[in-house]
Amino acid sequence: MKLKLCITHLLLLLLCLPSCASRTAQTNSKQAQTQQRIVIRAARMFDVERGQMIERPVVVIEGEKIAAVGANLAIPPGAQVIDLGDATLLPGLIDAHTHITYHFDSSGHFGLSGDPSADITLKYAAENARNTLLAGFTTIRNLGAGAQVDLKLRDAIKRGEVTGPRMLVSGEPFLPNDFDPTADEAARIAYMREFVRARVREGADVIKLFEGVDARGQALISEAEVRAAVEEAARAGLRVAVHAHEAAAIKAAVRGGCASIEHGTFLDAEAIRLLVQHHTSLVPTLYLPTHYLAHKSQFAFDDSTWDFFTRLQTHNLENSRRAHAAGVVIVSGSDAVAGLHGQNARELEWLVKAGLTPAEALCAATVDAAQLLGLDGQLGVIKNGYAADLIAVSGDPSRDITVLQRVGFVMKGGQVVKDELTTKAPRH
User: Fold this and answer.
1) Whole-structure pTM value
2) Which residues of the chain does CATH 3.20.20.140 include?
3) Which of 39, 111, 344, 411 might form a disulfide with 300, Cβ 3.0–4.6 angstroms?
4) Model confidence over 289-338: pLDDT tens digits?
5) Three state DSSP letters for 179-233
6) How far apart are CA 245 and CA 247, in angstroms?
7) Residue 255: how many other CB atoms lie within 10 Å
8) Which CATH superfamily hosts domain 37-91+384-424?
9) Fold annotation for 93-372
């Protein structure tokens, strides 16, 4: 009997060995793939921190991270080489203000009808995300979406089910009319805190508030109410972005401690001074009104809305020019809506129209944007230990910013997602 048991155990062990060996081989294979080095070469690389062009750069990538960067570096043995030829290498771009769920309907219009379900919205959003990534934007901050569609999309991208950029998302934004009109200040502050806690529970990465002014020109959300949102968000390690056009709304939001003002179209001297003093970033979304007005037949807006977009288009360049000259930190955000996903780089062209140099506009879409999003030290720069988020273009964006509207190579997290430039090279 004992002999039979021993034989049975031995047979079971032998049956398990091939499976164990297979799993071990698979594990070793995955480790080998993770440790495999990729080398990217190009004619030039723009250093966004120093504002300098580096000739004949070599970037060594291990897994999802950059392992080494420099001019004419030796290529490690066994590395896969991607030779981009006569191209300029840059960090993956960051769009600090998008609406990834906004899309034209089947008739080519926006605003005539809603989606029948959140799943349909998610499908459109996934297409927008793919177009955004292929345009060279490897990270976005999405500010406002219903039914948690942006959270679902972010998570699907993380799981590798959808092709798209890294996403920081706000979920549902706060609107001033969310307050009970009969509530006193204490009740409003309590409500604001609970709103933020609810977004945190849902998994939001950032809090979005819509600020405005009433008929008397006073802020609809007070400084104290903004501060309550900022304090509650900070407990979860999050930051607050505030939509505000009018000077009074901007000043209440900045004094309340928000991280960024979105739009900020009608700044006065005091608002500019506060932005500088509080180190609050301005995301001016300059191109958006031009996009709307150029596609007027596709958007179902009323006359007052079109008048407002005309006012924005008239004022926003000079407004941003004054802010930039005063030392306000400008961060690039396209406010990408229907028809604009994949054309996010138009915003950088408009930043240059507003007085930024091409090098400054590049900073606004890389290192400065990363700092606003709390991702400094992780991405936005081509540097050892940073995420291997890289793009390449033909031409020199430090002289002609519009070449960023024709990105030929995109890598996100060490994975090539677009390649129209490569000269195939053998392994070394």
Assistant:
1) 0.91
2) 93-372
3) 111
4) 999 999 999 999 999 999 999 999 999 999 999 999 999 999 999 999 99
5) CCCCCCHHHHHHHHHHHHHHHHHHCCCEEEEECCECCCCCECCCHHHHHHHHHHH
6) 7
7) 18
8) Urease, subunit C, domain 1 (2.30.40.10)
9) TIM Barrel (3.20.20)
